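Morning run. Coffee first, then this:
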Amino acid sequence: MNPVDPTLADVGWIYIVLSESDQIAGLISPDGIICTEWEPTSEEMQRLICGGRIRILAHTFHMPLQPLEVEVLEPEFPGAES
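And here it is:
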């Protein structure tokens, strides 16, 4: 998966850089929720179309796991009206 700039447009969320070397940016809410967005590669998309799963690895470093939420966003097509 490739990280992309988040499209979430909620008031009060602040743009942050999580990893310059991996070019991962995100948004952080006033409540401390971090949002990142990812685009699957062509190969990953083909696996998903064929019934592949999404795996999430959470590095907790033996601390309590924080709640996770996974969403699938509507595709953005050039020229499509919102």
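The longest helix spans residues 42-49. Good start to the day.
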